[in-house]
Amino acid sequence: MTTSPSPSPALTPSLARLLAFAAGAAVANSYYNQAMLGHIAGDFALPGAEVAAIAALTQLGNATGVLLLAPLGDRIERRRLILLTLGALVVALVMAAIAPSFGLLLLASLCVGTFATVAQQIVPLAVHLAPADRKGSVLGTVTGGILTGILLARTASGIISDLASWRVVFLLAAGLMLLTGVLLARRLPKVTPTTYIGYGALMASLIRLVAAHRALRRATLSQCLVFAAFMAFWSSIALELHSERFGLGSTAVGLLALVGASGAVAAPLAGRLADRGGAGRVAMLGMLLAALAFALLGVSEGSIVTLVAATLMLDIAVQTSQIANQSVVYAIDPAARSRLNTIFMTAMLASGAIGSSAGALAWSHFGWRGVCAFGAAAALAGAVLAARRG
């Protein structure tokens, strides 16, 4: 049984900012490990390519969490679901901090990725609460918070792991999520579920949504391609900067991510353009920018200046394309936003796990140019698909 969406409580500017902060803080937990792979490899005496499994498993956990938990946002009162998932995330982060072996760290990383998807429960809530003429803009604000969280996560974890330990990073993250849970418990409104069908039927409806909506399939696939390229870059950049060519530590990865975080200003603009009906063109331009960034990285191997500029371009590109594609997806059926978001984000995050693994393999076998070739090809394929949709 599906019901019409209930009237939305008012989305105040302060609540919108809190939702953006909470989503960014939650999703950051999936990316702390990327800047710390060098330290983790040293502590467990493992090669870089093997330690990269931490990043891949975290992304796999993201895909699992979005697939199994996010659809419940249409079925269970959203405030309660968000707070329960945050509690589980705190426990997983503590597990990662105290993991005595690499195997247990892998398990904890899978759990962190699974429950960090609370961010994908927050996004549909924000869109639900937003006025009809500002949904794209609000989506841009919250997505900007998410992508800023992703990038600042690498900055914070790189610096803290150099100064203290990678274990300290996970403990601090647990404390931050506990604080976030307290703030959300005080401010989040209760939202009536839009459906009361059982969990099995809820999951089965995902298949029907994919089969019914061509726009959903195309937007999702094009975003998968560019996100795989994005994750190939970030899963291998720490290994590249630790190599003899650069000889830099985790702080360098963090500072590079800080440069990319400045690209978050593109998110609200992309949201406004999507509100005006230009989502297909916005997505295509974002993916072409990503392909250009990889091309520059490939032809200017070893250049710090090019690396900084291309990182900024790449982060702007991925933010732009995600907001444009997501705005298309959310407009398909207001009563099924959590499930539509589940389909979109599960596929995207699964592609992130593939991209993380592909980036590590490309770096191990073909060097940095192999990573750039994979990234450019994936981004161009996404641009072609977005252009056909447009």
TrEMBL record:
Transmembrane segments: 44-69, 81-99, 138-160, 166-184, 196-213, 219-239, 246-270, 282-314, 343-362, 368-387
InterPro entries: MFS (IPR011701), MFS_dom (IPR020846), MFS_trans_sf (IPR036259)
Signal peptide: 1-22
Keyword rRNA-binding: no
Residue ranges occupied by any Major facilitator superfamily (MFS) profile domain in the UniProt entry: 9-390
Keyword Signal among record annotations: yes
Pfam families linked to this entry: MFS_1
Gene Ontology MF term list: transmembrane transporter activity
Keywords: Membrane, Signal, Transmembrane, Transmembrane helix
Gene3D superfamilies: MFS general substrate transporter like domains
PANTHER family in UniProt: MAJOR FACILITATOR SUPERFAMILY (MFS) PROFILE DOMAIN-CONTAINING PROTEIN, TRANSPORTER SCO4007-RELATED
Protein's recorded name: Putative MFS family arabinose efflux permease
Annotated organism of origin: Kaistia hirudinis
